Amino acid sequence: MAAASPAYASGVLRTQIVVSVLVIEQFWKYVENYPTCWGYCHNPEQKLQVIPLVGEGGIGKTTLAKRVYGHPITNAFFQIRAWVVVSQVHNLKEMLIGLLRCILSITSEIYDIDDAQIAEQLCRSLMGQKYLIFLDDIWTTAAWDAIQGCIPENFNGSDILLTTRFTEVAEYLSTDPYRVAYQTLEDLWEIVSRKVFGQSQCVPREYELIGKRIVLVCSGLPLAVVLIAGILATAKESLEIWEDVAETLNRVDTYYAIPVKSLINLWVAEGFLMPHQNMSLEEVAESYLHDLINRSLVQINELSIDGKVKSCKVHDRVHEVCVREAITGNTLCIINDNDAPKASRWLSCQTSHWPITQASYGNCTLDNIHYVLYFGKDVYHSKYNLVYPCLKLLRVLDLSFVKWSRGMPSEITDLVHLRYLALRTIGSLYKFRFFKIKNLLTLIVTSWMEKCHLQLPCDTLGLPQLRHLHVDKRC
Asked: What angle do CA 208, 213, 219 make, to 5 degrees?
């Protein structure tokens, strides 16, 4: 990459010179392609500039920032460099001491001094100097507000580089934060191949094919790739172990696309949302979703034509934490072929057979099951009783993976608290008494056989609370 000319020495473009380091295609080679010296952009009257890097955990923010921070050109341009890890719960004294430790020789006695005195000492050390401060992993705007007052404005081209997982924090600090993007398959495979086989060695074709399969399920996260590469490096002579790693990752991959409309309807049905000012419940849900996206807890998978989020994803690690916490708090029970079912607020059924039977739950009188989602594949059922004491307060029933062959179980009409119903079936539902489910908000009914058209009773649209109806076009 060619060096920038002095014509680009305006303060506005100084950030672009810094950030351009971070967008070089080869993630691990960008230091060698460092575009220019910061000195080309120096403006004596330039205000202190804050450069936030934002993205989810593990995407490579810290690695990128450290490469910039530690580069020889950076070292030559700034008279002082200091860095500290902030983390989730910030501690002002620890932050101040961490920065001061990079500048001066300090002793343990500094912990006996109050925050104001340490801040004054840090400010004196930075005064009149051209400095680069790196604040790693800022979680809140309060952490920035706490440290900002301790850093002098020298008007000499000093910079603050920081990383954060939260969009609102980054936008609080800068109108144009740098959003760290996911790496391409080729970039991530280069990380693996270099770590396992070395920079100059040729990678055998059979290993490359399996390795790229492994990289693909790491969801673009360099941190995950580096960890996997460490495992593969110990087994670079065993193709069988590489196959085992690939199969294991495929089994644990839970990175599914979630339709936003379905997600919002489920939130509404569960009663998670409260009306807010003049906003509908769906609009409130969209604001919550965007908040989760801004915090990098939920990722955008697909946008609609009008620019709205059409589907989203939750990364494997976030999914794992959520599931673990829900199970620990007895909120969720995952029913599979190996585990015995128990009563919880949410049931996630992942079996090859219908698990909610009189035999499996006995005479269970617990009535706290509100939510049943069935994820079994290609299961056919003609008739099953659904109403037991533990299901009397059921709000959500999603049977869209079950292929019912005779309409639908008539007992569903006894679930009077039901708000969300989704199912696939063939045959007529004309005699089904939907009017008994007066609290129903969302109804999704589709046919699993193209030639079998559905019939619904005319009074379906008369349900008093119905907000969303989705049926086949030929219904």
From this structure: 125
